[in-house]
Amino acid sequence: MSVAPNSQSPSSLIEINGVYKQYGTGVMAVSDMSLKIEQGQFVSFLGPSGCGKSTALRMIAGLESISAGSIHVNGHAPGKGPSGAQDIGFVFQEPTLMPWASVFDNVYLPLRLSGLSRKEATPRVEEVLTQVGLSRFAKAFPRELSGGMKMRVSIARALVTRPRLLLMDEPFAALDEMTRFKLNNDVLRLWQEHGLTVVFVTHSVYESVYLSNRVIVMAARPGRVVDDIPIIGSYPRAENYRTTESYAKYCAKVSDALTATLSSEDIDH
C-alpha cells in the first residue's frame, strides 16, 4: 500500500512501507520490508549474501524498481524531490572512477552533469577534496592512487552535490584492515560535519557496530528484516572503543542475531 508524502513522520528521512522486490526469474530479493530511518542516523544493513541489503539500498536510491509497496525519501519517491537525485549520494562497492580523468574531474562529474560550470564548481570540488584528505592529488589520475585513495575520491564525488542522504554499498570490503579502520573514522567525521543521514551496507559485524547507532539485521531467501538493534554510544568514537566492554557486548548481540538468520530452517530452501 502506498503512503502519501504528508503521512511521513516529520523527523523520518526515509520511510519504507511493505516493500517487495521480485525479479523476472521469480527470485524474491526483498520481502515485506518496512522501516523508518530518522534524519541524522547512521544505519547499517547487515546480513548474509542474498539477503537483499544491496537491493534495498538501490531501491532507496531509485536505482532499482519496486515490485510492491512504497519508499519515500524526505516525503517523495526516490529522486523525485525538489532537489532530485542530488539529495542522495551513492558510494558503490568499487570506486567506479573514470581512468582517463583526473581526481578533480572525477569529483566534478555530478556537478557538470547538473549544469554547473567548472568555474562555479571549483570551490565545492576543492572543499570536498580537502575534507577527504586529497587536496594535493587533484591533478592525479586513478592509476596513481592506492585503493583507499580511490575510495576517498568516490566518497568526495558522492558528497560534492551536498546530499542529505549518503548510501554506501560495502565500500571498504576490498581494502586491508588498517585502511578500512582509517576510512571508518573518516566516514564518521564526514557524517557529523555534513549532518548526513547514512545507510551503510556491510558483511562485518564489527564494522556495523563501530559505525552505527542502529544495525538492521537481514536474512536471506527471501530477503527480509529480522532484527533492529540500537547501538548506544558517543561520537566521535574513542580510540579504545573497539576494546571496550560496551563494544564487545553489542558485537555479541549483533552476531547472535546474524547467526540466528544463518541457522533458520528457511535459509536452505
UniProtKB/TrEMBL annotation:
One of its GO terms (molecular function) is ATP hydrolysis activity. It is found in: Cell inner membrane. PROSITE patterns: ABC_TRANSPORTER_1, ABC_TRANSPORTER_2. Keywords: ATP-binding, Nucleotide-binding, Transport. CDD domains: ABC_NrtD_SsuB_transporters (cd03293). Residues 14-245 form the ABC transporter domain. SMART domains: AAA. PANTHER family: ALIPHATIC SULFONATES IMPORT ATP-BINDING PROTEIN SSUB 2, TAURINE IMPORT ATP-BINDING PROTEIN-RELATED. Belongs to the ABC transporter superfamily. This is Nitrate/sulfonate/bicarbonate ABC transporter ATP-binding protein.
